[in-house]
Amino acid sequence: MSCGDHHETDCSEVLAEVWLFLDQECDEGRRALLTKHLDECAPCLAEYGLDEKLKKLLATKCGGEHAPAGLKDRLRSQIRYAVLEQAQVTVESGPDGTTTTVEVRSSRVERRG
Questions:
Q1: Shared domain check, 42 and 21
Q2: Angle value at C-alpha 23, between 20 and 25, nearest 5 degrees
Q3: Using CA atoms, how far apart are residues 86 and 88, in angstroms rounded to an integer?
Q4: Sequence-ordered alpha helix ranges (H) in the chain
Q5: pTM assigned to the model
Q6: Residue 53 sits in the same domain as residue 76
Q7: 1 in any annotated domain
Q8: Residue 13 in this model has a pLDDT that exceeds 60
Q9: How does residue 15 score in pLDDT terms, banded at 50, 70 and 90?
Q10: To which H or E segment does residue 104 belong?
């Protein structure tokens, strides 16, 4: 997008970084350039306003929800299983949950070109 006017920072750059700006994740120098552009460019300021409202709406509607208890542990377990399976590693545990056997079915070979 471009408003047709010449700016130090192009409209498309500003709009691509508007969420970084809203989240205050850009450095002070970049933030100053984006602020200057928004002060000079009505179309970008309007787009910024829409994004800002959307961000607030999302925070209001989605910000307070928490995942069910145990979900994090189940996800970690599934990820661990998938990683071990991909690496062709078998881990057996005893009744008390401690590791009893680890078997590696293949070896990894690094090739340098």
A1: yes
A2: 55
A3: 5
A4: 11-16, 18-22, 28-40, 42-62, 71-86
A5: 0.47
A6: no
A7: no
A8: yes
A9: confident
A10: strand 99-104
